[in-house]
Amino acid sequence: MFLRNHWYVAAWSEDIGREPISRVMLGELVMLYRTEDGWPVALEDRCPHRNLPLSEGNLVGDVVQCLYHGLEFGADGVCVHVPGQDNVPDWARVKRYPVAERNRWVFVWMGDPEAADEAAVPDYSTRLVDPEWITISGYQVVRCGYRLILDNLLDLSHLAYVHARTTGNAALAEDAVLTTEAEGDRVRITRWMEDIEPAPAFRRFGGFTGNIDRWQVSQFLPPSYININNGADDAGSGARGPEQLTSRGKWGFVVYHAMTPESATTTHQFWAVSIPERMVPDAERETFHAQMDTVIPEDTVVYEAQQAAIDRDPDAHDQDANPKGALAIDQALLEMRRVIRRLHRAEQGVAPEPNTGRTLP
Amino acid sequence: MFLRNHWYVAAWSEDIGREPISRVMLGELVMLYRTEDGWPVALEDRCPHRNLPLSEGNLVGDVVQCLYHGLEFGADGVCVHVPGQDNVPDWARVKRYPVAERNRWVFVWMGDPEAADEAAVPDYSTRLVDPEWITISGYQVVRCGYRLILDNLLDLSHLAYVHARTTGNAALAEDAVLTTEAEGDRVRITRWMEDIEPAPAFRRFGGFTGNIDRWQVSQFLPPSYININNGADDAGSGARGPEQLTSRGKWGFVVYHAMTPESATTTHQFWAVSIPERMVPDAERETFHAQMDTVIPEDTVVYEAQQAAIDRDPDAHDQDANPKGALAIDQALLEMRRVIRRLHRAEQGVAPEPNTGRTLP
Amino acid sequence: MFLRNHWYVAAWSEDIGREPISRVMLGELVMLYRTEDGWPVALEDRCPHRNLPLSEGNLVGDVVQCLYHGLEFGADGVCVHVPGQDNVPDWARVKRYPVAERNRWVFVWMGDPEAADEAAVPDYSTRLVDPEWITISGYQVVRCGYRLILDNLLDLSHLAYVHARTTGNAALAEDAVLTTEAEGDRVRITRWMEDIEPAPAFRRFGGFTGNIDRWQVSQFLPPSYININNGADDAGSGARGPEQLTSRGKWGFVVYHAMTPESATTTHQFWAVSIPERMVPDAERETFHAQMDTVIPEDTVVYEAQQAAIDRDPDAHDQDANPKGALAIDQALLEMRRVIRRLHRAEQGVAPEPNTGRTLP
After folding, report:
1. What is the tally of structural domains in chain C?
2. Is residue C253 part of a domain?
3. A352 in any annotated domain
């Protein structure tokens, strides 16, 4: 179940250059490169002549030359030269995808090009390019459907178990007050933990010795973006209310994730942890990097084991979930899945889901 | 074609401990561990909440804690704690499989739990724990359907070709008198070879210099157990009749196999060769181990090449056999396949196969 | 879409000997070996008893003995001995494939054995065994349908891009005069390039310093054979007309390819480049070999990337092509595909394609 009329992250800005690269997005072959002026270009990665991916070829100026028979395509996808003949047939063109670039992410519009709206490009990930912040970031292809990753990021109680060595401890799962809010197609879940023990990373880098107040605000933006504000302060002085959206308190960080489906059961994951420079003393910087780098692999084990288990279940729901029921912690992820189903039905021109009062998985 | 209402070996006793392991049995995800008291437990390896295999988690006493969100399940499969909420919903439980342990094998009942009968646990493999016997044993996942392995063990003429360097020679295939007997759901084939040359292993370890009488009694017990008594004596003094079931003569050994289907075309194989300690002189023990360890890989090549050939045959019968016809040596394995079909039809509530007088594969 | 009533190359002569080998041809398991007298034999590689490939077994004289139960099959595929029983049942036989050997290639007839015609064995590849010629040859299994390789060899404009470091330069694609001819089931395309710059290999080994005339004559013979005559001479003295079929001019070579489908999307490729010995000075021989050895891997990248792209296209035509349209350079390959479709319909007893005037892919 892919939503098409949306901007998806195709690559980190620095991974696109004058050497074309190929990515499968929503099942489609996409070639990415930059023009001589540095503008990112996304074209269908399939020569219309004999199917060779154009990314196997080379750039000649801003034109990509197919490796096989030398057909040349401009950055608009239109063939400008067929070797050995004077005319260029009408069919010699590839799909051009609208492209945008914001805050180190290159976005590609995967739906109807006419509907592409630059104003809709997600630009919340401002700390990725903030010179006063440190960012640890990465890219991986995960063997699971994209919604399993969204589930994870909308239910941070998992830190208590999956990341118990770094950012989590039992209090996160046991003692959190949850507030789930939906606003249009956005979903937000706020986790407030009062007067709890600090998790290992908070102790080490935040310098907490006594109990803390801690907050996590996880926001979902369709089709598959996540933005998490994490903050902590000495117990009794934690930020509450709207302040939680932007304050890190004495120590905290923000997390950005963008998931782009490759196939129904594989996903491109772009992730980042950003933290104000002053919150990580120079002497601790290397250790901080090392710790944060262990977090994503810990989650990846979970995602892929879930997908493998679902693949073995003949009753699985749409290849990326078949829970037997829901818990209180699932409110935000259930709402996220409702939003995606609603948007999908709208794209497909299908009537909205009836409101049965039942909680669907 | 799996038989469900049966005990299957899930693991060697020593392979189950306080670290949960995961096995796919008859297509189902099964987690295995031991309680603090040492009792083996088998649970559905899939958290009902969001599908993570519980075997990814940890034991807290006798309770398994899901790695993802910390749900805790008792050894009966019932959830006893959901972090962050007071009540435990009814759906929060996993299937508990009946378990039994006998002679170093841990058995799991894969069918209706109500029908599990401890008295039916196969316990013929007594030599596995006999202190006066040496046992060489192993476990492997084979890329073939389980019946291809049963075929092999019910037709030991293959020793002449597959194991010519150790336990076989041409006489086994050319000069054997075969007797096939069926008793209820059990099948027995006796191979009697009179006054033949000893195979290499019999010469080396049995110390035979002249001709021998040799016997092999291979017994099948549903769903997929094999028990083989192998004996040899100087020509003219070999054991005959009921004595063949238990006597090794001057030199011989017993073989135990348990096959548990993982999928239609992959199988867990648990195997053992047991021999009276006095029959392997200390100085020969290492060589004996080394020779026996070559036998299973020799068979595995055969099983997997058969399965690959069947996979390429669009006319293949039920994914694990499509012979053009039967030979005299096939009587026992054909009977074994008849028994399995009969039991399968009974489990499915289907009328018995008509007796057409034809030999089905 | 396989053509069955044809001779296919199964192996290079030197790759078949007294150790049986196995090849999957047109989806069928084929075993190949030589009799004691050196005659090649091709049998169905599947024991009719219990499906083990016979190639796992051993030769006893000219008889192959199954590794599993010792059944022995003569070179005619008929079982001559079943161990342990006197009679050999009628069903104990495997398919024997007609075999022929010409010019270092061993051919197998994959259709109705009655229809096998030795006179139809392709024997055009005479330079493979010409003592005055040097041949560089190879074998590989390519992950693409066989027609993608034929396409490549019937459109040599690709040398300009794929082999720009050796046998190609831009002039091959831009300045060629093409003539496509069909004669019965054969297709020939002649490429004539007048007064062009010599490509790197022609400069280095042909010793050209000034411009050249160059010709390439690529011929297709069903089901999947290619024969290419390549020649060059100083500009103004190139060979034209029928002479192009056989003359290399001052410097040139011939290329032979035989493609045997393994499956719809994998292909055995047998390839060779032959050149008159006098055209490669001793001092250059090693470099010439090295250069020619880079050519096939350059093509393989293209074939396999094409197939992977087609596999991702739900609208793909018959798994090995779905172009949006045709170019002038495609005339020969389109004709080749028409011939194959025509022969396939004839084999299947289907009425010929209607002549719609449209160019099908």
Report:
1. 2
2. yes
3. no
Are B45 and B142 in a shared domain? no
C68 touches chain B (CB under 8 A): yes
Same domain, A46 and A19: yes
The answer to whether residue B186 scores a pLDDT higher than 70 is yes
Taking residues A302-322, what's their average pLDDT?
85
Provide the domain limits for residue B28: 7-120
Helix (H) or strand (E) holding A338: helix A331-348
- In chain B, residues with a C-beta closer than 8 Å to the C-beta of C91 are 324-325
CATH number of residue B11's parent domain? 2.102.10.10
Instruction: List, for residues A35-67, the tens digit of each pLDDT value.
Output: 999 999 999 999 999 999 999 999 999 999 999
Whether the Cβ atoms of residue A103 and residue A123 lie closer than 8 Å to each other: yes
* Co-location of C61 and C165 in the same domain: no
pLDDT tens profile A140-194: 999 999 999 999 999 999 999 999 999 999 999 999 999 999 999 999 999 999 9
Residues B214 and B83 in one domain: no
Same domain, B220 and B258: yes
Subunits that touch chain A (at least 3 Cβ pairs < 8 angstroms)? B, C
Determine whether B232 is exposed, middle or buried from the number of CB atoms within 10 Å of its CB (0-12, 13-18, 19+). Answer: buried
Q: Do A84 and C157 touch (CB under 8 A)?
A: yes
CA distance A317 to A311: 10
Nearest CA to B75 out of B38, B103, B112 is that of B38
Q: Are B258 and B123 in contact (CB under 8 A)?
A: no
- C289 touches B at CB < 8 Å: no
B66 and A CB contact within 8 Å: yes
3-class DSSP string for C58-74? EEECCEEECCCCCCEEC
pLDDT for residue B36 is more than 70: yes
In chain B, the percentage of residues whose pLDDT exceeds 70 is 97
CA angle C278, C282, C287 (to 5 degrees): 110
* B70-104: b (≥16 Cβ within 10 Å) or e: bbbbbbebebebbbbeeebeeebbbebbbbbbbbb
Give contacts of B322 with chain C, Cβ < 8 Å: 51
Positive/negative CA dihedral, C302, C304, C306, C309: negative
Which of B78, B114, B71 shows the shortest CA–CA distance to B94?
B78
Query: Which parts of chain C register pLDDT below 50?
Result: 359-361
Q: For residue B3, what are its two tokens?
A: 């038989």
pLDDT in tens, C47-88: 999 999 999 999 999 999 999 999 999 999 999 999 999 999
Q: Could you identify the residue written with the tokens 């060629």?
A: C176
Q: Does A354 reside within a domain?
A: no
Nearest to B46 among A162, A178, A309 (CB): A309
Secondary structure (H, E, C), B334-361: HHHHHHHHHHHHHHHCCCCCCCCCCCCC
ipTM (interface pTM)? 0.93
Question: What integer best gives the mean pLDDT of chain A?
Answer: 94
Q: What is the mean pLDDT of chain B?
A: 94
List the single residue in A48, A50, A82 with the smallest CB-CB distance to C306: A50
CA quadruple B305, B307, B309, B311: dihedral positive or negative?
negative
* Domain contains A355: no
Tell me, what's the pLDDT at C276? 97
